[in-house]
Amino acid sequence: QVQLVESGGGLVQPGGSLRLSCSASGFTFSSYAMSWYRQAPGKEREWVAFISTLGFTTNYADSVKGRFAISRDNAKNTVFLQMSSLKPEDTAVYYCNKSPPAPNWGQGTQVTVSS
Asked: Quick one: 62 exposed, middle or buried, by C-beta within 10 A (0-12, 13-18, 19+)?
């Protein structure tokens, strides 16, 4: 069964940085592209960033392009999201999942950008 455990969120001031981690299990991690998604209060979950199986291809939502960087460590079954120049509108619960997503979602990690 797919299991995804996100961590690394927290409260940060505008302009700050955070690094999110997602530990995956229950499937052959290196065989799947992965993405980060987020859900802000009162909004639907949206896609944020994509990384191919070996990490050679990445894509980003326009709203985070140039500020966020996705990476992965297939030896550790982990995908990362480095977030910089954070804005209040980045406040959300962040999730990782396969791309396209599997039905199982983790608990997510809360990111709050506020002064």
From this structure: exposed
CA-CA distance, 16 to 105, in Å (whole number)? 27
User: Torsion angle of alpha carbons 108, 79, 35, 59, nearest 10°?
Assistant: 140
Alpha-carbon gap, residue 63 to 48, rounded angstroms: 8
Q: How many residues does the chain have?
A: 115
Cα–Cα distance measured from residue 102 to residue 115, given in angstroms and rounded to the nearest whole number: 35
Q: What is the mean pLDDT of residues 13-31?
A: 97
- 62-109 pLDDT tens trace: 999 999 999 999 999 999 999 999 999 999 999 999 999 989 899 999
Instruction: For residue 6, give the amino acid letter.
Output: E
Q: How far apart are CA 12 and CA 24, in angstroms?
A: 25
